[in-house]
Amino acid sequence: MTQHSLRPARLMMAIAGGLGALALTACGSAVAPQGAATPTGDALVIENCGAPVTITHVPTAAVGLHPSQTELLLRLGLADHLVGQAQATVQELPADVAPLAADVPVIGGETPPSREDLLAVHPDFVYSPTTYEFTAEQGFASIEQLAEAGVAAYTATGGCFSRRMDGTVDDLFVDLNNLGEIFDVHDEAAALIADAKAQLASVDTAIQGRTKPRVAQIYVDGTTLSAIGAGVEYDILRHAGADTIYTPDDPQFADFFAAEITPESLAAQAPDALVFAVTDPAHEQAVRAYLTATFPDMPAVRNGRLIAVSSSDMFPGTLGNVSVVRQIAEALYPDASFG
């Protein structure tokens, strides 16, 4: 099965935080630090997805359940703390950190690892992008099962079920602050936050005072067309300076961040630009061909403003949430200076 064929399920369950499967796993509010480790070894307690996560010691056997989470751990200088990486074939690690993970066992290719495969590497900390990765009904280790095995489980803030509809790019900063506390790498976490905030500020400066183009964010699977109107995806477009056609205020996004739409309804909106997530070059080529053939008179198509972004960069709780803001902004404002 190809990564492309897996994407619709991931869109509706992993990234969206599917209403059925994810409701069965831990869920709750945004993550917020609740305590701090002390030199005497007192436990650090952090609220994550509405439940406490207790850290009794600095983890030494961590697993990243998605390349984006593995990347964050690597950029925090924690390569020696990793005992596993999962969903490793879904997204390549950036070239500058990939060598650091060369000896980290891969315990899941296109999917999260089974409970047995995850526990086989004896982790003491598991870092996931969404609560989907903890769905016992899928054969994965649940948060409760991990707790019974003495393993702390942490979900990216934007991947918490209750955050899926109103998540923001800034949720990443909450995660970095928490990881800095958990692994006692405060300076490294602060540096990543400062760099990300500087990138966002540079975009704000470059587009300030400019007329915002009308933008629709969509997802195309074959000939099935969905609009994206809430969640971190919406916030990414907001940061990129888009006048978004689909917003969280629209009734069709009251319960879910994506909604299937007809080609006629999208054509009627006449967007200046279309932003769409793709899984690989073949998927991008297929989407471009569909959009060009279906909407030849749409301003976005006529003017060549079809903006493809990596689906992994739109995943909650990733550094890609920041870099893709600039990518989209540069496409929307080609004459602006981004420094």
Automatic annotation (TrEMBL):
Span of the signal peptide: 1-32
Boundaries of every Fe/B12 periplasmic-binding domain copy: 61-336
Transmembrane stretches, start-end: none
InterPro entries assigned: ABC_Transporter_SBP, ABC_transptr_periplasmic_BD
Keywords noted in UniProt: Signal
Superkingdom per UniProt: Bacteria
Listed name of the protein: Iron complex transport system substrate-binding protein
Provenance organism: Microbacterium trichothecenolyticum
